[in-house]
Amino acid sequence: MGTRANDIASLFLDGTNATISGNATISGTVSDSDGSLRTIGSTTLITSTPYTIPSGSSGKLFRIDTGATLGTTTVNVNEANFDQGDIFTIFNNTNSDRTVTFDANFTNNVRLAGVDSNFNGVNMTLSLFGVATFVAYESDGMTVSGNISP
Question: Would strands 98-102 and 123-126 be described as parallel, antiparallel, or unpaired?
Fold first, then answer.
C-alpha cells in the first residue's frame, strides 16, 4: 500500500502528552526540558581540579579550556552518577593531555570502544584538543570513544 498525498497523520492529545501516528513534519524549534534536540546540551566549563562529572549530565558537553588555571586537570567519572543510556562528551580545549579517572564501582566494566579490556578504576588520557564521548550502556558500565587512551 503506497502513501497518498491526502493521507493525514492522526494526533491524540490527553492534556500533557501528544501521540502522533503517521509521519510528522515540524517547522520551528524542537526541544525538551534539556534544550534543543539538534545540538549538544549546555556546555560546562571545567575550572577546577579534580572535577567530577555530576549526575544529570546526559547530553551535555564539558570543556576543559586554556583560560582555566588547572595545571594538570583530572576529571572523575563516578558510577553512582549515571543511568543506562546517559551520554556526555568532554572536549579538551588545551595543548596538554588531561587525565580522566573512572572509579572502581563500574561493576559491568569500563570499555574503550574497539578494545577488549576492562578499564575499571584506570586513569585514561584525553589527548590535547581531543574529544571523547562517554556512553553508559548499563547503570554500572560505560564505553568511551574518541581521542582517549589508557
Answer: antiparallel
Reading the block at residue 80, the C-alpha cell is 553512582
The span from the CA of 44 to the CA of 133, in Å, is: 15
52 and 102 Cβ atoms separated by less than 8 Å: no
Nearest to 112 by CA among 65, 82, 80, 77: 77
The domain in which residue 47 lies consists of 31-149
Whether 19 is in a domain gets the answer: no
Q: Is residue 2 part of a domain?
A: no
Q: Per-residue pLDDT tens for 3-48?
A: 555 556 666 667 777 777 777 777 777 777 666 666 676 788 887 7
C-alpha 65/C-alpha 96 separation (Å) is 10
> Residue 94 maps to which CATH number?
2.60.120
The answer to whether the peptide bond before residue 54 is cis (omega within 30 degrees of 0) is no
Whether 140 maps to a domain, the answer reads yes
Identify whether 16 is part of a domain.
Answer: no
